[in-house]
Amino acid sequence: MATMRIRFVVYLSQSILVLTCLLITNLAQQPASSQPATAMKVQAREVVLPVTVRDKKGELVTSLRISDFTLTEDSRPQKITSFTRETNLPFRVGLLVDTSRGMNSAIDYERRAAGKFVDTMLPEKPSDSPNARTDQIFLIHFDREVELLYDFTTLRDKLLHELGEMGPSRDEQYEARDSESSGSNNGGYGGSRGQGRGRREGAELYDAIYLASNEVMKKQEGRKVLVVFSGGVDRGSQMTLNDAIDAADRAGLAVYTIYLKGEEERPAGGGPPGSGGPHGGMGGGWNRGIGAGTGATQQEEGPILYPRKPEVDGKKIMEKIAARTGGHFYEARKKDNLEEIYGQIAVELRGQFLLTYTPDQSDKDSGFHKLVLKSNKEDLSVVTREGYYAPTEK
After folding, report:
1. What is the pLDDT of residue 124?
2. Cβ burial 127-149 (10 Å sphere, 16+ → b, else e)
């Protein structure tokens, strides 16, 4: 994750330097004038919302009109100016894949399913037509680290190669080896890398969504979507769940979540899942409180244990992320379901409407605005973002 942040800082510094040089050159070329400057006319801000509509059977509805809907912003009625299916507006898609140990047995299924999704979204040979839609996809994997494996691309073969090579980060691999070694040697208590820091189960889910939204997606144009595959249990993120959702809202994107219940880790030393063997104290969220080099051993003093964090319902977390960002939640009850789910997401994206309107009031403070979109037809369900952050007017 540190590598990823450094990379984006370098990009940002270069961009600021170029913009500064352009500004100085422009000012130097402008003639001095004693006339008062003419105020620049700011055009009204238009809001664009992706909308998915389903009937009571869950089937996508693709034939609707403006008059079928009502929209409010901060409880004020708004006038919808257009409601269409814009098939040529490109997608910007981020694939976020949980490669932690809990997902280990599903990784081959995930590679194949995500690969077929890439095949669907990216043509083998991009069209030369100026009117052809040019979708782009990037790939991130996350466990104890968040790593951008491939930035936005239209090159299907390159992305498929990265998916095929995708696996746990080095830290995750080290931790897995430490776990096997400590479980067989001393009942789950130690390991040179494990001392001084409690082992974490789960992955940095919130950091992955935050970085993908804030540092990859935010400046992109077009329809923006994240597809997140995970067990929904976060451990070790610097960001909170609300931080991640807030970043997605600010980037103007929807998050589609694919939930697969992660496998519980069963230490080799015995004991219940997460207990760390017969001596206990090794589950996710524990901190033994013994640092490397202290000379303390389990036989001399025993582990110092802090309370374990409450168990997290990963399914509810994934449901919340999708609902609050206007995406869709899918549960893979079996690993074999993943291909079908990715196929359903591709179909849903193709079946989206785009709704546009101009807010009745301007916002110069970049505040959050709550949206409610309803259908006048009782048998239809409507999904879009819960709201948006207004851009700062200058």
Report:
1. 75
2. eeeeeebebbbbbbbbbbbbbbe
| Confidence at residue 357, expressed as pLDDT on a 0 to 100 scale | 97
Residue 352 Rama label (left phi>0; alpha psi -120 to 50; beta): beta
**Contact at 8 Å (CB) between 267 and 350?**
no
Give the Å distances, CA to CA, from 186 to 269, 282, 347.
7, 12, 51
Q: In whole numbers, what is the pLDDT of the chain averaged over residues?
A: 77
CA 284 to each of CA 234, 265, 293: distance values in angstroms, whole numbers, following the listed order:
10, 10, 23
Listing from the earlier edge strand, what are the strands of the sheet with 223-230? 146-153, 136-142, 91-98, 223-230, 254-259, 329-331
Residue 263 and residue 232 in contact, taking contact as beta carbons nearer than 8 Å: no
Residue 328 makes CB contacts below 8 A (sequence gap 6+) with 52, 256, 257, 322, 345, 348, 383
Cα–Cα distances (Å) from 223 to 48, 73, 137, 336, in that order, read 9, 21, 12, 29
* CB 221, CB 283: distance < 8 Å: no
Q: Please give the structure tokens belonging to residue 252.
A: 């103007």
Q: In the predicted model, what is the mean pLDDT of residues 110-139?
A: 84
Alpha-carbon span 286 to 306, nearest angstrom: 6
Alpha carbon 47 to chain centroid, angstroms:
22
CA distance 270 to 261: 22
Q: Which helix (H) or strand (E) holds 368?
A: strand 368-375
Q: pLDDT: is 366 or 277 the higher one?
A: 366
What pLDDT, on the 0 to 100 scale, is given for residue 127?
61
Question: 366: Cβ–Cβ under 8 A, 6 or more apart, which residues?
Answer: 389, 390, 391, 392
Nearest to 118 by CA among 351, 346, 327: 346
pLDDT band at 51 (very low <50, low <70, confident <90, very high): very high
The model's pTM is 0.73
**Mean pLDDT across 212-239:** 95
Q: At which residue do the structure tokens 């976020």 appear?
A: 96
